[in-house]
Design brief:
This protein has a single domain (2-262), classed as Aminopeptidase (3-Layer(aba) Sandwich). Helices cover 31% and strands 25% of the residues. The protein has helices at 2-6, 14-26, 88-102, 110-131, 167-170, 197-211, 226-234, and strands at 31-33, 42-44, 50-52, 55-57, 72-76, 79-83, 137-144, 155-164, 180-188, 216-222, 238-242, 256-262. It has an eight-stranded mixed sheet with strand order 5-6-7-8-9-10-12-11, with helices on both faces. This is N-acetyltransferase domain-containing protein.
């Protein structure tokens, strides 16, 4: 917190972020409802490529740069990140990736408990998509695009982003901050780890925060998960606080740290 406030003079003015967001829109980017009357499925519909400090918001009209008509937020390290399309098969793939990452194996009937956990993840995803406005929540997915057909494309990474204003986080932001983008549920298939997929997902979060006009991103990591913390630190996040003892040490739970970054994507 002290470091954030000490560098308060370096925080970009709101008009600078608005300028960046306007430029994205001027290049043809917009969210289009493709969910019919239900209005629950949205996709990014850009018309030309936009570069934001090395990140690419894909908008080529060629089939090689599209999944259907969904644009990519980031093309990074051989991986492309886009917003989830609300289709049953794709939602199941997302649930599989997150369930594989977060399921804790048990000694007996592990397969049964894994399937149950995966069903819970899928149910939670469906609820968030159904109940959240399209500019307040998004599930972002990463996939490889190396000369494969649509039927062969595989989702290899997932991350959830939600616009929040929880006071425990707001206390660590400058007074003028109204909301922030909370990053959670980041997961990569085991067979594809250590291939910069998580890095691409985090950069897509930066791009989306700029499009939505949010200056800050926040996430939580376990204090003893040094690998995850190195990843987030390299992406610009800084530790500003941690869980109090009565939520962790005194009841035997692992302690988490709150990490925050200021989005600094400028054209």
């Amino acid at each position: 917190m002290a470091h954030l406030l000490a560098n308060h003079h370096n925080i970009p003015r709101r008009w600078e972020l608005e300028k960046c967001r306007t430029k994205l829109k001027d290049c043809g980017g917009s969210w289009r409802n493709i969910g019919g009357q239900s209005g629950k499925t949205w996709e990014l519909q850009p018309r030309q490529m936009v570069r934001v400090r090395g990140f690419v918001v894909q908008s080529s009209a060629s089939s090689a740069e599209k999944v259907g008509s969904v644009g990519y937020l980031v093309n990074e390290c051989g991986w492309k990140v886009r917003r989830l399309v609300e289709k049953a098969d794709e939602m199941r793939m997302v649930a599989q990736v997150q369930a594989e990452a977060f399921h804790v194996p048990v000694a007996l009937f592990n397969d049964f408990f894994f399937q149950f956990f995966q069903a819970e993840v899928l149910s939670g995803l469906a609820f968030k998509l159904r109940s959240s406005p399209p500019n307040r929540y998004a599930c972002l997915v990463a996939e490889a695009m190396a000369n494969v057909s649509d039927s062969q494309k595989q989702l290899v990474g997932v991350v959830d982003v939600t616009v929040l204003r929880d006071q425990t986080v707001m206390d660590n932001l400058p007074p003028e901050a109204e909301e922030y983008l909370y990053v959670s549920g980041i997961a990569v298939l085991k067979a594809f780890r250590r291939q910069k997929i998580a890095t691409a997902l985090l950069k897509a979060c930066d791009v989306l925060s700029t499009v939505w006009g949010l200056e800050y991103l926040a996430l939580r990591a376990y204090e003893d998960d040094l690998g995850a913390r190195r990843l987030y630190t390299s992406a610009g996040y800084e530790v500003v606080s941690g869980d109090p003892p009565w939520l962790t040490t005194w009841i035997g739970r692992k302690r988490r740290v709150l990490m925050i970054k200021r989005c600094n994507l400028n054209t």
